[in-house]
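Thread: "does anyone have the structure for this chain?"

Original post by V.I.:
We have the sequence but no experimental structure in hand. Need at least a predicted one for the grant figures.
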Amino acid sequence: MRLAIAFTFLAAPVFAQDRVEVGLELVLLADASGSIDQVELEFQRQGYAEAIQDPMVLGAIESSLYGNIAITYVEWATNQAVVAEWTIVDGPDSAKVFADAILAPPRQAFGRNAIGAALLEGKRLIEDNDIDAPRRVIDFSGDSMGNSSGPPILLARDDVLAAGITINALPILRPDDGRRAGANLEQLYTDNIIGGPGSFLVTAEDRASFAQAVRRKLILEIAGETPDTFDIATR
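Reply from O.Q.:
Generated one for you, tokens below.
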């Protein structure tokens, strides 16, 4: 209870200050490459904004060891753009601050895929902040596997994992337009992107299931669970 009270005032983005301790540092890396049009970009942002305010997600945060998480939302394409700065979320008010920050800015990431560069940007954001946490996670989402520029994906992933950061993934299958990366996107993400202790992926089968997949993924990450252990525990 003491820790939850101590960080309640941090319902705003975290800038230079004394170091803050939280239960989880979470970078949300959301696809904004050329395969994602403006409507889809806004749909993704809305899905994350709703998920962070969902009662089940807030319940997972409040019942965690520290009662809070640090989270940032980044869109990636050829470049990477921080949409919502690091924010300490410990309840409904701070969750709304973060949700509003996700929805506000115009699109800032453009071009083709640069997945390796996106993963390394997630690592940089974790290492350069003023936050300490026992768990550090990059949450990568996308609808394809290309890497048109920047460092190779596997080398970037290995660099992230060597820093003690776990990578989870949310593959977006998009069956309505033939699954842009082919039928094996989940396997490609398993083999080339996710890694680290307890890493996992949760699949968004289509647009209709996107928000539900995001909510489930956030609950798992906050609780430090994998889909198998979580499903068994909640039966």
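V.I.: this helps a lot. Strands lie at 20-21, 25-31, 69-76, 80-89, 131-132, 136-142, 166-171.
O.Q.: and Confidence is low (pLDDT under 50) at residues 1-10, 229-235.
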